[in-house]
Amino acid sequence: MKYLVVGVFILFFVTIIFLPENSNAIGVRKSSNEATSANDLKHPKYLFLHGNIVTPSLINNDISVPEHLTEFGFYHSGWTIDEIPEVAQFATFVDVYYNETDIMKAARGHGLKVWVQLAPIFFDGYPTYRKRADYLVRWEIAKKRLEPFSDIIMAFDPLDEPFHRSKLSNQTLKLYLEEIAQLIKESFPKAKRAITFMNKTVRESSFKKIIPKKYNLFAVNYYVGNNFQSQLVEKLMIKTSHLDVNYYLIPRAFKTSNRGFGSISEAQLINQAKQAYDFAIANPKVIAIYPFVWESIFGKDDYYLGVDNLERVQEEYRKIGHAISNTR
């Protein structure tokens, strides 16, 4: 009888099984300092602990991600609450607009951070994106909405591709962005202050003169071509090396009918994902991978198929996302 009880206890308390990848898990870091390359990434395995509460715990000792690479998420991954549970399986953050408090609550409930878009507060919108006259009033209102979520705000983004979109002069825009950064820093000092530059902006000879101060997270996007634009990212890094900033990568993750972006296969998008990940683990100042785009967009003239509709591409990003999120 004694041996039966012991046997049942052991069987009931610890059973090793392979769970579906959407199981909640606690990450265990590999002791090796050698980073796992994209080609060697695998879906995670789990240890299933039985007891009063069944607890799946991650066995991920064969995956190693450098400590500097801490974040993974998609553009347009927080458009609706319904998307949160799915992306939470392998992301660390979602992007939201400042007024979407219900989505922020859902993100928090699933253990996610948020990347907050602020453009409607400070800019008048398409096609001019000029300075709003009432931006300070709008910011005070937005602050009160955002303060309850200060613990999960990863970054603030004042305007995507500001020097490409805004009709303000470059110098006027630079000063305005610096004012916005100061407002953010005063109210949310722990959050990153991020700017995405267009490739054309970074390539300009005058780029260093217009880089806004008080920001600490930069990226450059360019969606033309079959490979991840590592040389363009390196150019951004060189031109901003005098600043105390980190970087995030924006690999292309969509197919489109818009011929301006050129055609690309799923295999090439998968390759871009791998190239971006390998670039990130090799560069200590890269802290996040932020592919464009999760949610598909169907416009009047063109469509953009995002990762939600590209099964093979999504499979690759699930491996990358799991590697980053499960080792943190």
Briefly characterize the structure.
The chain has 328 residues and is α/β, with parallel strands linked by helices.
Structural summary, described in words:
The protein has 328 residues and is an alpha/beta fold. The protein is built from 12 helices and 14 strands. The chain has helices at residues 2-13, 84-87, 101-109, 119-122, 135-146, 162-165, 170-187, 199-203, 207-210, 230-239, 266-282, 311-325, and strands at residues 14-17, 45-49, 55-59, 71-72, 93-97, 113-117, 153-157, 192-198, 217-221, 246-249, 255-256, 286-289, 297-298, 303-305. Strands 4-12-10-9-8-7-6-5 form an 8-stranded parallel beta sheet. Strands 1-2-3 form a 3-stranded antiparallel beta sheet. The longest helix has 18 residues, at 170-187. Mean pLDDT is 89; it is low at 2-32.
